[in-house]
């Protein structure tokens, strides 16, 4: 009896992991996971910022409906602040955020935060950057105009 119980538990966990694997998830689930991980990297990894416009572009490249990035951002904020910020999404989106949160938490615990943060630099290249780097869309905006004196 005890062996059967362990077997069912093991199969349930294996099924859950397979069901939540982003590589096999539908495009929006994979996108939700990517956005959540980018925001997590911004919060958890020192010196990291995210490039919101590149997340919007990725949604467009994936043929997501207009406004997907903002809906996902609001749903993540809602869930992670206990409803104090953001807005709840539809049930499916909130479920995707919950699954992305759980898998990200598991990855962070398994790898440890320093390793997880390093991994995100390559996995999310283009969506996160070091805070000192200007975003692609910011290039030249921090430089003074030709006739404007430099601000010190």
Question: What is this structure's SSE topology?
Answer:
Layout: H1 2-20, H2 27-44, E1 48-50, H3 52-61, H4 68-80, H5 91-111, H6 113-123, E2 128-130
Antiparallel strand pairs: 1-2
Helix pairs in contact: 2-5, 4-5, 5-6
Task: Describe what you observe in this structure.
This protein has 152 residues and is mainly alpha-helical. The protein has one domain. Helices cover 61% and strands 4% of the residues. It contains six helices and two strands, in the order ααβααααβ. It has helices spanning 2-20, 27-44, 52-61, 68-80, 91-111, 113-123, and strands at 48-50, 128-130. A two-stranded antiparallel sheet has the order 1-2. The radius of gyration is 19 Å and the shape is globular.
Sum this structure up briefly.
With 152 residues, the protein is mainly alpha-helical. It has one domain (26-133).
Structure characteristics:
152 residues; mainly alpha; two-stranded antiparallel sheet; disordered C terminus
Number of helices: 6
- Could you list the spans in which at least 5 consecutive residues all have pLDDT below 50? 1-12, 14-24, 138-152
Task: List the domain count as a whole number.
Answer: 1
From the helix content, strand content and strand pairing, which structural class follows?
Answer: mainly alpha
The best one-word shape is globular
- Biggest sheet, in brief? 2 strands, antiparallel
Question: Could you estimate the helical fraction of the residues in percent?
Answer: 55-70%
Percent of residues in beta strands? under 5%
Radius of gyration, Cα only, in angstroms? 19 Å
What is the typical, i.e. mean, pLDDT? 79
N-end to C-end Cα span:
74 Å
| Tally of DSSP β-strands | 2
Question: What's the helix-strand series?
Answer: HHEHHHHE
| Order of strands across the main sheet | 1-2
